[in-house]
Amino acid sequence: MNxxxxxxxxxxxxATAGRxxxxxxxxxxxxxxxxxxxxxxxxxxxxxxxxxxxSPAAGTLAAFSTFAVGFIARPLGGLVFGHYGDRIGRxxxxxxxxxxxxxxxxxxxxxxxxxxxxxxxxxxxxxxxLVQGIGLGGExxxxxxxxxxxxxxxxxxxxxxxxxxxxxxxxxxxxxxxLVTNAVMGDHAFTSWGWRIPFLLSFVLVAVGLVIxxxxxxxxxxxxxxxxxxxxxFPLAESMKVGFPRLALTLLAVVANSxxxxxxxxxxxxxxxxxxxxxxxxxxxxxxxxAALWFVTIPVWTKIADRHGRRTMFIxxxxxxxxxxxxxxxxxxxxxxxxxxxxxxxxxxxIPVTHCVQGSIxxxxxxxxxxxSGSSLILQGGAILGGGLAPMISTALLNSGxxxxxxxxxxxxxxxxxxxxxxxxxxxxxxxxxxxxxxAPVEPxxxxxx
Length: 450
Known about the structure:
The protein is 79% helix and 0% strand. By secondary structure, the protein is mainly α. It has a single domain, classed as Growth Hormone, Chain: A (Up-down Bundle), CATH 1.20.1250.20. The longest helix is centred in the first third of the chain and has 34 residues, at 11-44. The protein starts with 10 loop residues before the first helix and ends in a 22-residue tail after the last helix. Residues 1-8 and 433-450 have low confidence and may be disordered. InterPro entries: MFS, MFS_dom, MFS_trans_sf.
């Protein structure tokens, strides 16, 4: 798809772009299904299954700590997959990341409980969570840039938004399967052993995802990089030449979205059921409906970004998330189910305003020959600083303060930092990136090679 910004792509190129966008959506949905399945289980199941000797509060904190382990592993996955994605191609690395996530999730469903093997149960849980994190670390940036690099002119944000839809899509899929399995089996059987079924189902879902992903063609941007002999030996180091100010501001701009999203998707389940006496099923259904709203609004926001520019939308969305964080927990704390639904649906409506374009903002930071490595560094750095620690920090703040006030201030503070980072970032750099590959050959850090 070698079109200039002013050329219309051919019918075949448009079909390839559409097929790639749907393939990245399918793949990221399945990977996030596996990842969020763990989050839901950590909030509701794992404290009893793997940490029964701890108090309910300490057990929940321990379960969320294992949830955070996956985020600690994500930068490693991002660096490894990013390196090879910039050297041998995007397609192969995305296939491997999907397989790795499927293996990790399937084996989690087979881990014996603490009662059966004692200390080794949480050890195995943490180990497989690391495998999950490494797999997802390779997926996040790779899927976004793969879809974006196939995008027709003028639709960069729209196509980059398809992989972003996999986040709420995976949450919806995970929660629906979780709910259906629980409803069919009953609470006791589900808590005892039925929770394993959704994890074991990962094997089938990933097999389907692989069939779809293997049919995707390599990124045209990477094909041009290879044809122009612009593959570099150490792409991560080369990506640092973008400069520390832009890298740091980009990281700050995206960190709040991750933190708020994981408090909304994961921490809310344990907080609402254990401290506010909301029914677990009610909370899961409400979060699922909010995630579905998040999913369907992403194409709307990305089309607006393509038509009117994404910087104003991103800054306005960042401000809106901050304001809603002020109201979110007070609405939940009323104990009124209707107001709780309003709080959760508000998150589902506001979070996608920034989430839908943060991928394209990150990808546009780097030239094509180091894009996978650089984007992975920013994306996974934001994920670990924001999302990975958010449920654990929120639980610790709740336990120490006895109320949600500390959690609210934590979210408001991190949103203010991201808003300031976004404003500074857009003053520093133009909204749109230059052509995917620089016209002049790039001088590699330590020589070239395939």
